[in-house]
Amino acid sequence: MFAKLARTGLLIAAIGVAGCTDSSMKDFAPQANKPLPDKILASMKAKGMTRTSPVMARIFKEEGKLEIWKAKTNGRYDLVASYDICKWSGKLGPKYTEGDRQAPEGFYTVRPAQMNPRSSYHLAFNIGYPNVYDRANGRTGSHLMVHGACSSSGCYSMTDAQIEQIYAFGRDAFQGGQTEFQIQAFPFRMTAANMARYRKDPNYEFWKMLKVGYDNFEITKVPPKVDVCEKRYVFNQVAADGATFDPTGACPATTQPDSLKSAFNAYQSTYEAAFSGAVKASVPAPKPTIAGIKEASIVSEWSKKRARGERVPIDPPSFNADGSVTETARMGRIDSPAGRKMAALDAEKAAKQKAEEQRLAAIEAVKAEKEAAKAQALAEKEAAKTAAETPVVTATVAPSEAAPAVETQAADAESTATRLKKKLLGMFGG
């Protein structure tokens, strides 16, 4: 019994420490032991690579790509596979603080203990955030992964089929003796055109620093030696005898092979000419980027409230160029007593607001009815007044016209009397 428990304990320890031993993969996570497809193995062989030769990865956010590079027999690396990133969270720009939902940018190191064959996200490996540079600059965060399940809150998420292959590249390299592999995470391919697009971005100086490492790899096709001093990255620099790189202290005196200096200067001359041309050219509009620690802080606070189950907008707030903050009106889920209490208070507030709006609407309706009645009464009064002031038209005869008529009537009356008198006299012999 004791022996059985001991074996079980050793297997669990292996998972926790290395995460990629044969026993742990076969017994607990068979998906972590799947071999690379024959097509990829054939491509590697054609390029002078072995299954267990050293590996490195490059990530490009804007393009949504994760590249796997492997060392050839001559020591230089070549691209062997490229995958569409299923999902990454946040915006272009580095991760600043725990909860800002930013996927990191920079140069990171993965060792065997960071491989997780039993991840809740199918398979995963921790990219090593925060690294020395991040810690020197006070940046915080944890559990930043490349994993499966296509779901991200600050990580780089792949499909399950993709992560099986990506995980296998790292597993095989460790089995071949590589003790760690490098991940280079960039906001975009650091071409002259892209750098010109983002030259006014608040993250531009940080990206210029990353570009030095990017350029060193483009020139040599070997992962650059990465150190940190004065809170900044330095690449392919060799400190003088006895000197060391202090992440927050002054950079020591360093040397670099003349061949690398010459190659880098030539590369930079070509780049600067292309950059000048790109500044004048019409280029696509930049993508949204994080506005530094201020935006990271408000998103982090949103994340904390959400983690507590409070009722918050379904999307994190966004910092605008003018300093204002935009929040979506659509609210997220409620999954705690605190969240339900907030929802009840919000509902009560909304009901009161609606009742008040209805009361004001009723008052306005009564007021409008009274105004209409008043207007009608006024209109009737005005109509009556107008009727009273209008003169009655009657037939009149001017005095000059009336006199002849009177005279005519008198003459007619006299003539009639004369005729009647004569008639009477004739009847009685007069």
Largest β-sheet summary: 5 strands, mixed
Task: Output the radius of gyration.
Answer: 46 Å
Strand order of the largest sheet: 3-2-1-10-5
Oligomer: single chain
Helix content: 40-55%
Detail the poorly predicted runs: 1-27
Total helical segments: 11
Structural summary, described in words:
Helix content is 46%, strand content 14%. It is an alpha+beta fold and 430 residues long.
What are the SSEs and their pairings?
Elements: H1 2-17, H2 22-28, H3 38-46, E1 55-60, E2 65-71, E3 77-84, E4 87-88, E5 106-110, E6 115-116, E7 124-126, H4 132-136, E8 145-147, E9 156-157, H5 160-175, E10 181-186, H6 192-197, H7 204-220, E11 226-229, E12 232-235, E13 238-239, E14 254-255, H8 258-280, H9 292-307, E15 318-319, E16 325-326, H10 337-388, H11 399-427
Parallel strand pairs: 1-10, 8-9
Antiparallel strand pairs: 1-2, 2-3, 4-9, 5-10, 6-7, 7-8, 11-12, 13-14, 15-16
Give the structure's gist in a few sentences:
The chain is of the alpha+beta class. The protein has helices spanning 2-17, 22-28, 38-46, 132-136, 160-175, 192-197, 204-220, 258-280, 292-307, 337-388, 399-427, and strands spanning 55-60, 65-71, 77-84, 87-88, 106-110, 115-116, 124-126, 145-147, 156-157, 181-186, 226-229, 232-235, 238-239, 254-255, 318-319, 325-326.
